[in-house]
C-alpha cells in the first residue's frame, strides 16, 4: 500500500429532488488498499458508487482519480481510465457461456475505444483477456458452461471477472458476499486479498461489519448521506457515533461475520 491517494472525493453532494443522499462527503482511498464503505440502509453507499462510476453527476464536489477530476465524465470514459465495478444483483446472460459473458464485457467498443474487437485478431485478443480474467477468479473449468448453471458464489466470481477484464486499477465491489455461505465468503475474501496483492485498489460496500473488519485496511462510515467516521476498522467500529447509527437499524454490527 502507498500513501498516494488513487481516489479522492472532495465535498461530494448528491440530491434526488428534495432528498440529499450525500452531503459533503470527503475521503481518500490510497493506492493498494482495501477500503470498506459501510452504513445502515439508505446511508448513501450505492449512490456514492454511482457518483464515482459516473452514473450520477454530483450536485456539488469533485471526484478525483489518479490526480485528475473525473466527476461529470460519461461512464465509459471513467471505466477506460481504470475504474470498474460489480453489482450486488448479478445478471449474466444465462444462455451464453461464462466465457462469452466475460467477452461481452471486454469487447464493448466504447471501452475498447475502437471496433478492433470485431476483427478476427481482435476477437482472439478479447477471448484471451476473458480467459485470463476467468483464471484470476478461479473459473477456468466453468468457462464453457452456460452462465445460468452457476450457483451464487460462482456468479459473484463471474461478475468479478467481468470487471477485471477491463483491467482496472480501482475495483468497486457492491456487497460481493451478500447471501453466500460461510465457505464461499471465506473463498471470496481470499480472492479479494489476492487481487490486492496483485496491485489492485478496492473500495467495497459491505453490510456485515464483521466481514468488512476482517477484510479492510481502512473504513468509511456513512449515515443519512453524511460521513460520520473514517479510519482504522476496529477504531471506527468502536466509535460511539457508528454504534449509535447502527443500533436498532441493523443487527449485523458485531465482531464476527
Ligand atoms: N434514483 C433515486 N431516486 C430517488 N431517491 C434515491 C435514488 N437512489 C437512492 N435514493 C435514495 O437515496 C438514499 C440513499 O440510498 P442508497 O441506495 O445510496 O443507500 P445505501 O446505503 O446503498 O442503502 P442499502 O444499504 O439499503 O443499499 C435513500 O434515501 C434512497 O431512498
Automatic annotation (TrEMBL):
Entry-linked PROSITE patterns: ABC_TRANSPORTER_2
GO cellular component, one term: plasma membrane
SUPFAM superfamilies given in the database record: P-loop containing nucleoside triphosphate hydrolases
CDD domains, A to Z: ABC_Mj1267_LivG_branched
Gene3D superfamilies for the chain: P-loop containing nucleotide triphosphate hydrolases
Keywords, ordered alphabetically: ATP-binding, Nucleotide-binding, Transport
Any GO molecular function: ATP binding
PANTHER family reported for this sequence: CONSERVED COMPONENT OF ABC TRANSPORTER FOR NATURAL AMINO ACIDS (PTHR45772:SF9), CONSERVED COMPONENT OF ABC TRANSPORTER FOR NATURAL AMINO ACIDS-RELATED (PTHR45772)
Descriptive protein name: Branched-chain amino acid transport system ATP-binding protein
Protein's organism: Desulfofundulus thermosubterraneus DSM 16057
